[in-house]
Amino acid sequence: MWRRSGKGSDCTFSYWRGFYKFVVGWGLQDTGYRLQVSGYKGKKNTFYMKSYRELDIYKESKQLAIEVHKMTLSLPKLEMYEEGSQIRRSSKAIAALIVEGYGRRRYKMDYIKYLVYAQAECDETIVHLEFLFETNSLQSEKIFQSLKSAYNVLSRKINKYIQWVEENWNEFPDQSTGNL
After folding, report:
1. Of 34, 71, 79, 147, which is the most buried if we count CB atoms within 10 A?
2. Phi, psi (5° rounding) for residue 15?
3. Residue 40 pLDDT > 80
4. Are β-strands 14-17 and 47-48 bridged in parallel, bridged antiparallel, or unpaired?
5. What is the pLDDT of residues 137-175, one digit of tens each?
């Protein structure tokens, strides 16, 4: 379940904090929603993420955006350019905001701000899905239910990650907690 990332990193210690298990050199895992932040052990047991691509919330938001994009191609012409365009933008904005926030991760409040925006876009995407289904533009209830539940889970994961960042993310490395 834990995956090793980074060459030559050693797992030197682990401890539990709330719902999270932090293992230096291996990552962080939320036991409730399988949130995983991977990284490697740097100098003085400081934890670093190598890339935003290692975040499960990024991977899932990108995959869902691709699914939404493909789904909108089968919408009626009127909806493809109206509501379809809007849902494509909101679904793609989730991944883009996670990436932009990661680019500003040095400043904790900026990082949190963009993660909150990503969660808001997630909720907006759910509303657009509901509009499409309730107006019979999206006729497959199976697709609607699977996308809606996937976006609800993603929203909860983003919320959990925001909480973790608020509690554990430091603007300067802290040797006692091992956070950046």
Report:
1. 147
2. -155, 160
3. no
4. unpaired
5. 999 999 999 999 999 999 999 999 999 999 887 755 545
